[in-house]
Write a structure and sequence with these properties.
Mean pLDDT: 78
Strand order of the largest sheet: 1-2
Number of strands: 2
Order of helices and strands: HHHEEHH
Structural class: mainly alpha
Largest sheet: 2 strands, antiparallel
Shape: elongated
Strand content: under 5%
Number of helices: 5
Distance between the termini: 135 Å
């Protein structure tokens, strides 16, 4: 007796039983080509609008990024920190090793450090009573009360 296969039992062939519908593939490829061409045409039109100069504004200048300054505004980062440090120390040493006025109105001067150390060794430190009161001292107390 022959076996009977029912229609409800699927048969497995191991491969596709239908071919691809070439009409659908061709229409998809054509529609993609139309969308691509339309996108390119739209971009060319938009860039053409952007590139034109409004009437009365003269020829187009350079791009805005080209007009920006080459250096950022101050304060800037150090470009040569060792050189700048040496220059700062030179200036400070020149200031510390020279004579000059600190406050001319009260007669306060600055003197070189070596000379100041010699004076302290020769004369000693002044007592608090001998230190002159500066003109900028605005306290209400009298000099005798501060001693």
């Amino acid at each position: 007796m022959a076996e009977m296969h029912s229609d409800s039992t699927p048969t497995h062939h191991g491969h596709e039983t239908q071919d691809v519908n070439i009409r659908v593939v061709a229409l998809f490829a054509l529609s993609m080509a139309v969308v691509l061409a339309g996108s390119l045409a739209l971009m060319a039109w938009v860039f053409g609008i952007i590139h034109t100069t409004p009437a009365g504004h003269g020829p187009r200048g350079r791009a805005p990024i080209a007009a920006t300054p080459l250096h950022p505004p101050a304060p800037r980062l150090q470009t040569s920190s060792t050189g700048e440090l040496q220059e700062m120390r030179r200036a400070e040493n020149a200031w510390l090793q020279s004579y000059g006025w600190v406050d001319r109105s009260i007669g306060m001067v600055r003197i070189p450090i070596d000379r100041a150390m010699q004076i302290v060794v020769e004369q000693g430190l002044p007592s608090w009573h001998e230190i002159p009161i500066s003109a900028t001292d605005t306290r209400d107390s009298k000099p005798e009360e501060r001693r």
